[in-house]
Design goal:
Blueprint: E1 6-12, H1 23-29, H2 38-41, H3 46-61, H4 66-70, E2 76-78, E3 85-94, E4 100-109, H5 111-135, H6 137-156, H7 159-164, H8 166-182, H9 186-195
Antiparallel strand pairs: 1-4, 2-3, 3-4
Helix pairs in contact: 6-8, 8-9
Length: 196
């Protein structure tokens, strides 16, 4: 188990971890899981604890399809410092007669995949931005001029005048937000949304 890149844990039907933990399990879950309840291992908050508790009760009854119930279980865990992410998967553990004895939890580090996915999303945003500008160069120039004019106008305006013109300011910001979305300028769109 020490040579593989997954963490495996076996739980009894009450949700208590039965297995000696591999170094990967201790690393991923940031706890020695043996004898710990699933709640503690997954650092479940009070709101989600009730849902997980109910799920464990349904699993224990073994009357419903395990795979269907497992879809309701947590699917991911983030390290305490937020630097790593792990995909979680629950499987049934049955004896020779097919009776459910517990559950097996596997965790796989998906941090690199998520970083690559975010990088791909940013690259797509950039390419969308370039394509939209290229297709609508005149509209983009007009948009930039309007942004500049609005910002210069509002930056020079005293706060009490802006307060008196608040409906007009909101409408102007909303219009600029829509235009920024058309050109896929995500950062500007978010900034205007927050300003609204």
């Amino acid at each position: 188990l020490e040579s593989i890149q997954e963490a495996f844990l076996i739980f009894n039907l009450d949700g208590v971890c039965l297995t000696e933990a591999s170094s990967k399990a201790k690393e991923f879950f940031e706890i020695d899981p043996k004898g710990q309840h699933l709640f503690n291992i997954l650092r479940t908050d009070e709101d989600h604890k009730k849902n997980l508790e109910a799920l464990l009760q349904f699993i224990k009854l073994d009357r419903l399809d395990f795979e269907g119930l497992a879809q309701l279980a947590p699917k991911a865990l983030t390290s305490r410092d937020g630097s790593r992410s792990f995909a979680l998967k629950f499987r049934p553990m049955r004896d020779g007669a097919g009776q459910l004895q517990g559950t097996v939890l596997t965790a796989v580090d998906i941090t690199r995949e998520l970083i690559a996915q975010k990088a791909a999303e940013r690259a797509k945003e950039k390419s969308d931005f370039i394509l939209r500008i290229n297709e609508n160069m005149i509209e983009f120039r007009n948009f930039l001029r309007r942004c500049d004019a609005v910002l210069q106008d509002y930056l020079a305006m005293p706060g009490e005048r802006i307060a008196k013109r608040l409906p007009e300011v909101r409408l102007e910001l909303h219009t600029l937000k829509g235009a920024s979305a058309i050109f896929s300028i995500v950062v500007l769109n978010l900034a205007i949304h927050n300003a609204e």
